[in-house]
Amino acid sequence: MEAKVVTFLHVLFSCLLCLHAKPLQTYIVQLHPHPHGFTPTSSAFPSKFHWHLSFLEQSVSADDSSTRLLYSYTSAMEGFAAQLSDSELDLLKKLPGVVAVRPDTRLQLHTTYSYKFMGLTPAREDAWYQSGFGHGTIIGVLDTGVWPESPSFNDRGMPPVPGKWKGICQQGQDFDSSNCNRKLIGARFFTKGHTPANTIQEYASPRDSHGHGTHTSSTAGGASVPKASVLGNGGGVARGMAPGAHIAVYKVCWTNGCYSSDILAAMDTAIRDGVDVLSLSIGGFPLPLFADSIAIGSFRAVEHGISVVCAAGNSGPLQYSVANEAPWIATIGASTLDREFPAIVQLGNGEFLSGESMFPGNEFPSTTKEFELVYAPAGGKKGSEFCFAGSLPKVKIQGKMVVCDRGVNGRAEKGQVVKQSGGAAMILANTAINMEEDSVDVHVLPATLVGFTESLRLKAYINSTRNPRARIVFGGTVIGKSRAPAVAQFSARGPSFTNPSVLKPDVIAPGVNIIAAWPQNLGPTGLPEDSRRVNFTVMSGTSMACPHVSGIAALIRSAHPKWSPAAVKSAMLTTADVTDHSGNPIMDGDKPAGVFAMGAGHVNPQRAIYPGLIYDIKPEDYVTHLCTLGYTRSEIFTITHRNASCSELLKMNKGFSLNYPSISVIFRQGTRRKMMRRKLTNVGRPNSIYSVELKAPEGVKVRVKPTKLHFKQRNQVLSYRLWFISRKRMTREKLSFAEGHLTWINSQNHLTRIRSPISVTWKRK
Q: pLDDT digit string (tens) for 431-471?
């Protein structure tokens, strides 16, 4: 009996210790690839995996070490991801060969018409034809997976899988090798950065249970699908930007986000698999490059000749909000299309409010019925103005049209709340935060979205009468009636928080109300209550803009397979549009868009295929650039895995400036002059002469020398210098900005123009 009591107390004590023990946390451990001249694949260790495991064996109990190792990285980074306690972390950090240890971070996910809007058609002179529709290139998409049965991944007419491809179609839940084909050539999933609880109600396979990855993959390289629409709206032929490219999917995002350990593992694998382009509609807050796993992994990808394209983020219009800022990444903001889905609100007093919706109202004549209007009904709970779940009293909204303020909970979710509470229709009203931004949804009940100005009129009307009433008049799909492109309000803005010497975002691309492929296990809203089924749906975000540019990068790679990632990016930046389709400046709200909103401008695939001249950058140039920014030797090693001596590099490269297609100048207090160099490579015809056209930023005198460049041969490199002289006195403001541009114009045809935006910043400190 006494022994049983002792055993019970021992178990109880152990359980109490478990309750108070801190849970293990995942860390990414970066190692020196050759510590003290040691080669880890020597006879001491049979593989890199065993070498990585040896670090854990020195810091955790030997019985537990192999189960703690989540990933072993060899291509995107040298190192591993493992679960550690605080004490184990302290031990590991002290081991020789450990370069850096970072906690695993959670990042977030950030078309039947957009290809036409961007000028892509199957004509012989078109960029599609000239690039072979992207044939031979492989786009790797890191996202929520893929729904392989979607018609956008049909491989009819696709060429064989490229011989360089080394990837696989990973088997898992409801997914096997038969789900891959000549279009979708590979699919993998990465979930070790998550605990098992995080994968509940998700496919433990590359299969997409959220829709985001299916949408982005088809936007980048989806096949041609005729008669595509979303319940009758936005009808047409659906095509990705590079319909002839192959797609490889890497599932790294799950219900509660995308973990950096999984993302790094996917990048590590994709490099070895042989992708040409990596597309990441993923990001978080701006981080120093040495703490940014995407920046570190993408540098290694660029070293392997892979173009990396990332979303800028959806934290606009806040300054300094742009994410994925590394200069070797193409950072993409979002723009609008000239396609609308009008759903006009007719008020009881006869006035009309402009609105938009993709609810298929034309299929239901009863939706035009007039309803009583109600907003924040009496007796409602806290949050009723936002239409939170459980906040709307059924007795007050039964059979009525409910006004819901935008924000906090999802747009489509508000409609579901109204429907469940007995409401008949909904008006989603923008607030001062959203202003006139018009991301539409395929609502579960008759509904429309109105801008902030219209929402003020709406609420004024409700307050002006005892019996406010309204009806929604659905207008289907309208093209060409609005100015576009314009910068999406949510699109993250520069300048770059960690590296203002490089202008970010790089370019903008369509990201508002984009129609693309969708899984058959989800309704078009993505809500679990939505029982409707579609092959396509609409989404908005820089997540949608990113794969547009990934597809265009694939077109350029297909036309110019030997070009570097920097050359591909230069082609897109220097040929971007700064005017909309009406020939007027691209707008950002009610003002012309600046460089921190649109970067070099709106990507133009037609011109990017043959840009004439390019600004090329080698990986070692980025290392020198990091030296000019004041990064330490260990920080540069963490980012690049290169053991650089900045003093030697800067001595060898006096007056170095990164050969970036855009130009960013910073005047700090006491500095009035800056000199920069740029080099241009002729990728056009021999015997081409280019003359410079300059618009100097206000408050700055700019000199360019020489003012003409004569390229006698193809691939010839010529350089020029720029002098910037500040004529502006430092004010009390900590920061002030100005912008201009420099353009090299082909003297023979005047059509080939290589434009670089110029950003000037004055900083008091």
A: 988 888 888 989 999 999 999 999 999 999 999 999 999 99
Is 80 exceeded by the pLDDT of residue 45? Answer: yes
Checking if the pLDDT of 1 tops 50, the result is: no
Instruction: Report whether pLDDT(19) > 80.
Output: no
| Active-site pick, 52, 110, 210, 212 | 212
Active site residue 543: yes
Preceding peptide of 485 cis, ω within 30°: yes
The C-alpha atoms of residue 169 and residue 650 are separated, in whole angstroms, by: 46
Report pTM: 0.90
Whether 212 is catalytic = yes
Which span out of 157-161, 381-385, 396-400, 612-616 was modeled with the highest average pLDDT?
A: 612-616
Exposure class string for 724-747: b at 16+ Cβ within 10 A, else e: bebeeebeeeeeebbbbbbbbbbe
**pLDDT-derived band of residue 210, with 50, 70 and 90 as boundaries?**
very high
Query: 248-285, pLDDT tens digit by residue?
Result: 999 999 988 899 999 999 999 999 999 999 999 998 77
CA gap 521, 557 in Å, rounded: 34
590: alpha, beta or left, given left = phi > 0 and alpha = psi -120 to 50? alpha
- Integer Cα distance of 1 and 424 in angstroms: 69
pLDDT at residue 35, rounded to an integer = 64
The per-residue pLDDT for 196 is: 46
- Rounded Cα gap, residues 754 and 327, in angstroms: 19
**Count of beta carbons in the 10 Å neighbourhood of residue 661:** 31
The pLDDT of residue 23: 79
- Assign residue 670 a region (left: φ > 0; alpha: ψ between -120 and 50; beta: otherwise): left
447: Cα within 13 Å, side-chain hemisphere: 29
693 DSSP β-pair partners: 743
Is residue 540 within 8 Å of 513, Cβ to Cβ?
yes
Q: Lowest-pLDDT range, 118-122, 532-536, 666-670?
A: 118-122
What local confidence, expressed as pLDDT, does residue 14 receive?
Answer: 42
In order, the DSSP letters of 140-179 are: EEEES-B-TTSGGG--TTPPPPPTT----B--BTTB-GGG
- The catalytic residue among 143, 273, 438, 506 is 143
Distances (CA, A) of 752 to 41, 261, 617: 51, 44, 21
Q: What is the DSSP string of 99-131?
A: EEEEE--EEEE---SHHHHTT--SSTTSHHHHT
Q: What pLDDT is stored for residue 42 in this prediction?
A: 53
* Residue 365 pLDDT: 64
- DSSP structure string for 38-93: --TTSTT-SSHHHHHHHHHHTTS-TTTHHHHEEEEESSS-SEEEEEE-HHHHHHHH
- Consecutive H or E run containing 230: strand 225-230
DSSP letters for 368-409: G--EEEEES-TTPPTTGGGT-TT-S-HHHHTTSEEEEE-BSB
Q: Is 38's pLDDT higher than 80? A: no
Q: In DSSP terms, which residues pair with 28 in a beta bridge?
A: 81, 102
* Nearest-10 Cα torsion for 353, 356, 362, 365: -40
Catalytic residue among 131, 543, 558, 664: 543
- Extract the tokens encoding 104: 């695993």
CA 58-60-66 angle, 5° bins:
95
Picking from 699, 641, 557, the residue whose alpha carbon sits closest to that of residue 303 is 641
Q: How many residues does the chain have?
A: 765
Q: Which two tokens stand for residue 700?
A: 């700055």
3-class secondary structure for 485-541?
CEECCCCCCCCCCCCCCCCCCCEEEECCCEEEECCCCCCCCCCCCCCCCCCEEEECC
Those residues with Cβ within 8 angstroms of residue 436's Cβ, 6 or more apart along the chain or in another chain: 430, 451, 452, 453, 489, 589
Beta bridge partners of 738: 760
In this structure, the number of other CB atoms found within 10 A of the CB of residue 43 comes to 6
Residue 13 has pLDDT above 60, yes or no: no
Our answer to whether residue 530 is catalytic in this structure is no
